[in-house]
Structure formats: structure tokens, C-alpha cells
What we know:
Elements: H1 14-47, H2 52-67, H3 70-85, H4 91-116, H5 120-128, H6 133-163, H7 175-186, H8 193-224
Helix pairs in contact: 1-4, 1-6, 1-7, 2-4, 3-4, 4-6, 5-6, 6-8, 7-8
Main location: membrane
GO molecular function, one term: transmembrane transporter activity
GO biological process, one term: amino acid transport
Amino acid sequence: MQDLGASIIFQGVNLQRLLSGLLVTGRIALISIAISSILGIIFGIIMTSKRKSIKIFSRLYLESIRIIPILVLLFIFYFGITKILKIHLEGELGSIIVFSLWGTAEMGDLVRGAIMSLPKHQRESGKAIGLTENQIYLYIIIPQVVRRLVPAAMNLATRMIKTTSLVVLIGVVEVLKVSQQIIESSVLKNPSAAFWVYGFCFILYFIICYPMSLFSKRLEKKWQS
């Protein structure tokens, strides 16, 4: 039977290299998501402030991160800021910084929206029974915000995992970079190498992201019922 080229995945240490690259992708994504979750909650609470200066700063940060493409931010940090400050920044660390900044902005806006969607009388009721502002957030607002926030936060996490594929352009040896290396070394012997290697990457991303998407949808349906 003719070999269709799929065996390239299992030749030598190719599979091990691809899984190691996936580990780098996962590490960047998980650290960025963890940092974004913590800072995003804080940023979201800050965004609900009535102080004009804080509102202006928050909106400026949020819109700047949204307007500038992630790839441009990666280039700014990895090629620009490192040259200006004359420092060495590892590609993986630079990627985590950029994705954390992006995730914090997006998570913060989700938190802000969830807080603002709560009825005002709940905060007023908390004040009426003598709760402090911190207690109102801790016992009334945050539990309800978490319930509304989780599905949207899961979608954001999925987006962050998929977008980490851009880090290949600043030299991070993650799963796509490894794929490129395997394809370049095998393309003469196996012209269909790109199809099989990138197809395997598709499967890996699908295995990671699809269950998260399903879980998010189930939570959303469960909590809306």
C-alpha cells in the first residue's frame, strides 16, 4: 500500500518534538491566562470607578490594546523595546507579557460588563444592612459576577490559546515552529509533508479548544435556565 505521507509524524523524534512544542504553547497560554484572570478582575473593578481620570486611563488602555494587532504588540516588545532599553528578552517571556496585557484588557472589560449588569438595588441593599464597600464586593457582587463571567472567560481563554500561534514569528520554538522545521527538512522526500504536519497541529488545537468551547456553552445554558 502506498504511503500517503502521514508516517512523517511518527518518523524519528518528530512526534516527541511536536508534543514538546505543544508544551511550550500550553505554557505560554496557561501562564498568560492565569495572570490575565487575576489582573483582569482587578482592572475590571477599577473600570467601574466613577473618577473621571481613572475612566479615561482605563478606556485608553483598553482601546489601545484592542486597536493594535497582537502581532504588532509582539514585534514592539520583542524587537522594539528590547533595542531601546538594551535588554535581552526571551521570546517566550515577551509573549507572556504581551498576551497578559491583552488578556487583562479583555478580561477587565468582561468583569466591568458583568458588574454593571447587576441591578443597582443589590449594592444599595448591602449598604442598607451596614456592609462596607469591600464586603459588598466580596459577598454580593463577586459571587454573581463569577457566575456571569465564566462562560465569556472560557471563550477568551480559547482565543488566547489559538492566538499563541503568532509567537512563531518572533522565534519561539512552539508547535508551529517545530512543524515548520519538520516540513523544511522533509519536503523534498515527502511533498505532502505540510498537509500532514499542519493537519496534526489542527487536531492538537482542536483537542484542546473544542472541549473548552463545549464546557462554556453548557455553563451558559445551565445558568440561563
